[in-house]
Fold each of these.
Amino acid sequence: MTMAPTLSARIGSFAAGLSLENLPAPVVEKARTCLLNAYGMALNGHATAFAPVARRMALEVGGDLPQGVTLLGDGRRTAMAGALVANSALFHGRAQEDTCGAAHFGTILVPLLTALAETRGCPLDRLIPALVAGYEAGGLLEAAFAGQTTPAGFRSTATYGAVAAAAGASRMLGLDAPTTAAAIAIAVSFTGGVLQSFADGTDEWRYQPGVAAHNGLVAAELARAGAVPAPHAIEGKAGLARAFARTDAPADLAATLGTDWATLRVTFKPYPVCAFNQTPVTGALALRETLAGTAPTAVRVRMNPYETGYAGMDAVGPFNSISGTLMSIPFCIATTLVHGAPTTRRMTTYDDPEVAALIARITLVPDAAVPVLCAVIEADTPAGPVVRTQSMTTTDYAYDRAPLAALLRRIGAEEGVAPAAFDRLEAFVEGLPQGRITDAVEAFALPLAVAASN
């Protein structure tokens, strides 16, 4: 009797078969937009503190290697493992990376694929198919299991990121379907990452994507070298689904590959706060206009329990890190009502008495009747209650490339990024598969020159 293909085999076959010729045009265009967002937000994060920490680690562990991976925004080169952690931390620095469900695969995939193109000479006609392979492999698992793994304390970026990285790396390296399937299965054994750093307002989550990227690459290289994987790594009795989600993997889980594209579900962030805080901030901005300077005596924020239960979302301070403020719904609502749209400066102002006073008057209400990505903000005022219902879907945050480019440039103007850097990145993304990976890498030298001149 012929056995049905395992999940890793089906995902691997799909990923290995992707090419620019067989990808739908909307998927290719969305992948270009994801590339531009990843590179652009990394440029705009050049002054954040997390990549320098990881660079010090990378150079200590891997040394200064002239033929290594470029540390973006720094210029020195080092070994792959440390460079992936450092560059992913740069891409994650503003917390305005792309989002696929609850996972930020762009912070994993784009630094990884860039490094492979730079150091392995991988042709650029594989870049977009490899990026899509990563989003599809990771997105398939995230959509199926994040509803169970997130409440259990596992971070989706880390839990599904190694598999995404293995699929993306395998396609970038040109591995065949059986080897790609083996890489995906091996990557399952390297997966994991918890949410406690969000609750404590600490930095570990900034470095999880780079570790996931490296684990996925190691899985791909082990598969290519001949390592024998567990064929039922995802659906087996001790596989990913049961170990992390405490459920069985649906028998038809891979049936949607190539029809329900995870890449098309990727969204972007207009504000430097958690993905779950984008809608509360949007609603608070509208409410601020309605209040017209009137300070509310009390505020109630109703959101879906999946979001309010995420680590750090209910924090009320005192705060001492942006890792704490960007997660806190009360802080994001308060700073928006007091000052307007959040900026990194506002998100790192921890001692604002007006914001602190308003946080004390905000109550977070888990409400299953409020859909995910929506919020109801009820403000009590001397003139009576004012209610703002902000109903959003992923479509509202799935920007096309032109408005996204405008957003990147607006933030870049605030952060001192040379416009020529965006010119170069936009030309690189538009020109793919033509061009050179150095066109993207060298763009990261320009923001430092601007910052140094100010």
Amino acid sequence: MIFSATHIALTALIAGVTAVAAAAWRLPRSQWRHLLAVGVLTAIAVFMWRISANMPQLNDDGLSPFSANDWAAPALTYIVLSVYADLVPPADPARYRQAKALTTILALLINVITI
């Protein structure tokens, strides 16, 4: 089973919006650039993974209800957010790590629920 680009884009958008909410809960509001970056990078990571790996063998639930893509999209999200923090260090690294962890968990849940 493969998914439409629209379906994948909506999943990525939901992941990005919830990522901003998670980041807003953990990061100070003065760090608005990091808040937006977490959301945008999460949406991009989820979209790019899901669209590039949108093939039946990766979308089939090997461990019901989880597919390989359900696991991999959040992993790429975590990597992208880690690289971002290495390139643009946040003012409060501990809180950023918490936001990154929450975002990764949310990305997994959203990928399982929406796709």
